[in-house]
Amino acid sequence: MVKPLPFEEPVVRLKDKIEELKNITDDAHVDMTDEIRSLEERLQKLEADIYGNMTAWDRVQVARHSERPTTLDYIAYLFEDFIELHGDRAYGDDAAIVGGIASFGGTPVTVIGHQRGKDTKENIRRNFGMPHPEGYRKALRLMKQAEKFGRPIICFIDTKGAYPGKAAEERGQSEAIARNLVEMAGLRVPVISIVIGEGGSGGALGLGVANHIHMLENSTYSVISPEGAASILWKDAALAQQAAEAMKITAADLKEMDIIDEVVPEVTGGAHRDAAGQAEAIREAIRSSMDKLCPMKTDEIIEDRYRKFRNIGVYKEGEN
Amino acid sequence: MAIIREMFKKNKKRYMTVPSEAAKDMPEGLMTKCPECKSIVLTKDLMKCDKVCPDCGHHYKMTAYERVDCLFDEDTFIPMDEGMKTVNPLGFPSYEEKVNSDAEKTGLNEAVLTGIGEIDGQRTAVAIMDSHFRMGSMGSVVGEKITRAIEKATEEKIPFIIFTASGGARMQEGVLSLMQMAKTSVALSRHADRGLLFISVMTHPTTGGVSASFASVGDINLAEPKALIGFAGRRVIEQTVREKLPEDFQTAEFLLEHGQLDAVVHRSEMKKTLSTLIRFHTKEAR
């Protein structure tokens, strides 16, 4: 049983009611078919209403759902023969970022993604999906390897942000992220990034300088968490709900600002309700990006990425 | 005697005014008191020595224009994109007013001054961030101005130098601010591809998204003494790791010790250092 989120409660209550009536029908031999049918119709309407009118904050909750599929879940659905490759060759292996080589419908690709855990134990091992510098350096090592062998790169973005810790600072968290941005800009192979959960600031962007960026419908991408924004802007983290709206962090917002290429629709209620079904929608998005990007020449690939990021920004031109 | 002296001291303290943050950073009055060693100098003298305390070597924050005076040969600097204007893409209340008020205060259109000038006769593109403008935070205009300066350097095949001073991304422009990190990076990648020199000079403070993009990827990374440089804020880290951080944590010297910087350069040596580095990278020298 998937844990319901607060905004889903009316749906869950109605579902329980229907279940109850069904049980009564079975046990007491009372025919409630008509009632059940009318309630089921109401449920459909209610679901359409609730899931069709999700607020930014609702989506934040879905994006953070403990059972939301992670990078490794999608890798299992989308690729064959995945071989995980470890380590940055300089300091260690960061379990908050996973990467390796796999086959996507017969084409060898390099896959990299943030990896959080689904329970406390795994979350501690994976540092809640918040990478240290060695994670970004491992990612860069695998990207350079992909470039050498002409493999497309697919990145899954799912992090609250790069880890704000003492050791991370000592080992150059800033440099690790910054290096990835510049190096990704110059990669001679196609790069496709998909935001599958939270896209938290620089820590997300470190895997995000891609030719195509896709976002799952209920994922978010932002410069700071809603809580952080609320505490900086209004000195009150409790105003996170308002901040989530004001900061424009949903997939639809980013599509409207022309920052991302495509919003990947989610299954009703969010990806955690049907990971396999969600993976198919992602497969479509990757497939369509690969079809567009793979035939491009090296120079075109780099130029395409340059154009994409060069044009982001809103300002008024003035006279000197 | 001692008691009398003590009383005298106390009296003095009672009537002393506490200077505001702004007063500490911007010597406007006749005299300026160093926030580090508390010694008092004539503001006129302070300006003569590049805003460095003659007693303890404290580097005061500089405005972008002050840096231009320190760095470039006289009358060689030509600014770029001075008329570009910030808009309010997310519709944050009173955002434009805040930007306009800082523009008036600093004489800049945004938190960075860009342009081209000569350093000992060597043509160089530069971007100088100014922390007196919205904490030097980076929004669309800052990102665009820096990108254009890099592109100009690429086009003219000249070095690019950036002086960073920034609290990070501009919150009020949301994810558009974040994406300026990527925008400047794609431009730097092109500049690097042409074999051109990029020097980053980190000044106080350089944190967040600015530290995690162009500031950290110079061919040569320099910093001013004692400058605060880091990815995450000190308070955030202390809350995360629940331990006391060392006094010098995230200072230029700390970064140097941890292999994150090429050198810490005193302001009085900065022009000479940059000029020499540029000379080493000219065609004639190679």
Structure description:
The complex is a heterodimer of chains A (320) and B (286). With 320 residues, chain A is of the alpha/beta class. Chain A contains 14 helices and nine strands. In chain A, helix 1 runs antiparallel to helix 2 (33-52), helix 4 (71-78) packs across helix 13 and helix 6 runs parallel beside helix 8. Chain A is globular and about 70 Å long. The model of chain A has no long low-confidence stretch (mean pLDDT 94). By secondary structure, chain B is α/β, with parallel strands linked by helices. Chain B has helices spanning 2-15, 21-25, 43-48, 64-71, 95-106, 140-156, 174-193, 208-211, 234-241, 252-257, 267-280, and strands at residues 31-33, 40-42, 78-80, 85-86, 112-119, 122-129, 160-166, 198-207, 220-223, 229-230, 263-264. In chain B, strands 3, 5, 6, 7, 8, 9, 10 and 11 form an eight-stranded mixed sheet that branches. A two-stranded antiparallel ribbon of chain B has the order 1-2. In chain B, helix 7 links the parallel strand 7 and strand 8 (198-207). Chain B is globular, with a radius of gyration of 20 Å. The interface between A and B is large, with 55 and 65 residues. Strand 9 (315-316) of chain A pairs antiparallel with strand 4 (85-86) of chain B, so a sheet runs across the interface. Chain B: Pathway: Lipid metabolism; malonyl-CoA biosynthesis; malonyl-CoA from acetyl-CoA: step 1/1. Chain B: Zn(2+) binds at residues 34, 37, 53, 56. Chain B: It catalyses: N(6)-carboxybiotinyl-L-lysyl-[protein] + acetyl-CoA = N(6)-biotinyl-L-lysyl-[protein] + malonyl-CoA.
The structural class of chain B is: alpha/beta
- Oligomer designation: heterodimer
What distance separates the N and C termini of chain A? 63 Å
Spans of chain A of at least 5 consecutive residues whose pLDDT stays below 50 are none
